[in-house]
């Protein structure tokens, strides 16, 4: 009985873990992970601006599929949508015009915008360019929000080429 | 006094036992947090405290280009201070004087310095534009118009990954 007690005592004494090597490993791992940690992820939204060109217009072969350019005027209280194309009858282009209201300073209704643009995209599937004309007072984050809304909707691509332009008026 | 001395002498020195368990717990939590935020390619762009980028659902990666930063207080081209910003106004960058502005001159110089690889088509250079989310289009338009006039019509708007 006394022997058993002695063995138990010995076992209890040996169970203390040496934490120092583990601590050393942690001290090496933490600075390494701190250096390679990314606390934010920066992504890019590709866009371009209209460029004046002096080069003569070339006669490109006419595509079998009709392409249109959607014009989106982003105002502080509404969003106006229209379309441009020399391959489509003016009557049809007028039918594609609409105005979506938005609360002043509020978010753009991405669902209403996406639904409308999806209809245009379904009708003219090879169209991929949208001309975005924001109002002077529209904030940068609203422009990015609109760009997100016109590029993708319901996991489908709408108009990936967004050209940013100032108002001509 | 003598008694206390002898008492002190008779005591054996016992090294103080460190309580490492709580420290281990803390380190484990830190380690797990850092493992989750580990990135093979950590961001090379340092965000200014006066720069609040908008969030976007875009998944496109940015590429190296001319870096133009428009924060709440200043306009920088590749870390070089070009102008200061007060509200919606950028000093020395008015609608009627875009082609005489310091930004235009610096971008023109930068464009001229770009070396075209021999025998290859010249690379389409672009501007990586980092802009504060609160700026109005009136302010932004002056900057992007100037860049366009200097030969940079293609842009990558830097955004934070989000919903």
Provide the helix percentage of chain A.
Answer: 25-40%
Number of strands of chain B: 7
Q: Biggest interface pair, residues each? A: A-B, 43 and 52 residues
Give the ordered list of helices and strands of chain B: HHEEEEEHEHE
Mean pLDDT of chain A: 82
Distance between the termini of chain B: 76 Å
Largest sheet of chain B: 7 strands, mixed
Q: How would you describe the shape of chain A?
A: elongated
Give the fraction of residues assigned to helices of chain B: 25-40%
- Spatial arrangement of strands, main beta sheet of chain B: 1-7-6-2-3-4-5
CATH topology of the largest domain in chain A: Nucleotidyltransferase, domain 5
The coarse silhouette of chain B is: elongated
Query: Oligomeric status of the shown chains?
Result: heterodimer
Count of helical stretches of chain A: 5
User: H/E series of chain A, N to C?
Assistant: HHEEEHEHEHEEE
Percent of residues in beta strands of chain B: 15-25%
Task: Characterise the protein shown here.
The complex is a heterodimer of chains A (169) and B (163). With 169 residues, chain A is of the alpha/beta class. Chain A folds into two domains: 2-35; 69-164, 2-Layer Sandwich (Nucleotidyltransferase, domain 5). Chain A is 36% helix and 22% strand. Chain A has helices at 2-14, 20-35, 90-95, 110-123, 140-151, and strands spanning 42-48, 69-74, 78-84, 98-101, 129-134, 152-153, 156-157, 161-164. The radius of gyration of chain B is 28 Å and the shape is elongated. Chain B starts with a helix and ends with a strand. With 163 residues, chain B is an alpha/beta fold. Chain B has a domain at 55-161. Chain B has helices at 2-10, 21-36, 102-113, 137-149; strands at residues 55-56, 66-70, 74-77, 80-86, 89-90, 127-131, 154-161. In chain B, strands 1-7-6-2-3-4-5 form a seven-stranded mixed beta sheet, covered by helices on one side. At the A-B interface, helix 2, strand 1 and helix 5 of A face helix 2, strand 1, helix 4 and strand 7 of B. Strand 1 of chain A pairs antiparallel with strand 7 of chain B.
């Amino acid at each position: 009985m006394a022997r058993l007690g002695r063995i138990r005592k010995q076992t209890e004494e040996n169970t203390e873990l040496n934490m120092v090597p583990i601590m050393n490993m942690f001290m090496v791992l933490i600075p390494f992970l701190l250096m390679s940690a990314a606390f934010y992820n920066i992504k890019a939204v590709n866009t371009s601006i209209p460029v004046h060109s002096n080069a003569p217009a070339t006669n490109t072969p006419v595509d079998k599929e009709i392409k249109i350019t959607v014009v989106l005027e982003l105002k502080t209280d509404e969003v106006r949508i229209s379309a441009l194309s020399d391959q489509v009858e003016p009557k049809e282009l007028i039918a594609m015009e609409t105005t979506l209201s938005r609360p002043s300073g509020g978010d753009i209704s991405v669902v209403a915008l996406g639904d409308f643009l999806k209809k245009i995209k379904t009708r003219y599937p090879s169209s991929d360019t949208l001309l975005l004309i924001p109002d002077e007072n529209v904030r940068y984050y609203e422009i990015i929000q609109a760009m997100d809304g016109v590029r993708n909707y319901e996991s489908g691509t709408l108009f990936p080429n967004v050209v940013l332009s100032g108002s001509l008026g | 006094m003598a008694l206390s001395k002898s008492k002190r002498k008779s005591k054996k020195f016992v090294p103080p036992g460190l309580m490492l368990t709580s420290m281990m717990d803390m380190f484990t939590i830190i380690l797990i947090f850092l493992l989750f935020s580990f990135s093979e390619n950590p961001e090379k762009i340092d965000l200014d405290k006066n720069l609040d980028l908008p969030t976007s659902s875009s998944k496109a990666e940015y590429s190296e280009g001319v870096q133009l930063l428009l924060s709440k207080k200043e306009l920088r081209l590749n870390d070089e201070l070009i102008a200061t910003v007060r509200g919606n106004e950028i000093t020395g960058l008015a609608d009627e004087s875009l082609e005489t502005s310091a930004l235009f001159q610096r971008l023109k110089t930068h464009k001229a310095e770009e070396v075209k690889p021999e025998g290859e088509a010249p690379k389409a250079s672009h501007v990586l534009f980092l802009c504060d989310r609160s700026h109005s289009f009136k302010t932004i338009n002056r900057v992007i118009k100037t860049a366009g006039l200097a030969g940079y019509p293609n842009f990558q708007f830097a955004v934070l990954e989000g919903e």
